[in-house]
Amino acid sequence: MATKQGIHKSRGGLIRSFVTLENGIIKDITISGDFFMFPEEALFVILERLKGTPANRAAIQKNIEETYTKENIQSPGTSPSDFVESIMKALEG
To answer: 3-92, which class in CATH?
Structure first.
């Protein structure tokens, strides 16, 4: 299982994703960068919820958007779609 990296530049900063797959499912994921998110634990919650998600754009987008809504996440200059782009670049890379 190789870990792949994807990088996407949003208005709010750089988003770097490291994704490990197992049988088409996200087994492990790390996201870092120079963006801001509130509440502080928002990124941790997103990452935990992405584990076990099918590695396709629709499932990842739905998961992140639902997490943003449920957790009332704010990320100035960065949207759920920006995170999806970074993850997809890792998956395609």
So the answer is: alpha beta
Distance CA 62, CA 77 (A): 19
Cis-peptide, bond into residue 54, ω within 30° of zero: no
Cα 43 to Cα 54: distance, rounded to the nearest angstrom: 19
- What is the C-alpha separation between 76 and 2, in angstroms, rounded? 32
Q: What is the pLDDT of residues 33-75, one digit of tens each?
A: 999 999 999 999 999 999 999 999 999 999 999 999 999 999 9
Q: What tokens were used for 24?
A: 């088409």
Q: Token pair for residue 37? A: 């998110």
Number of H helices, E strands in the chain: 3, 3
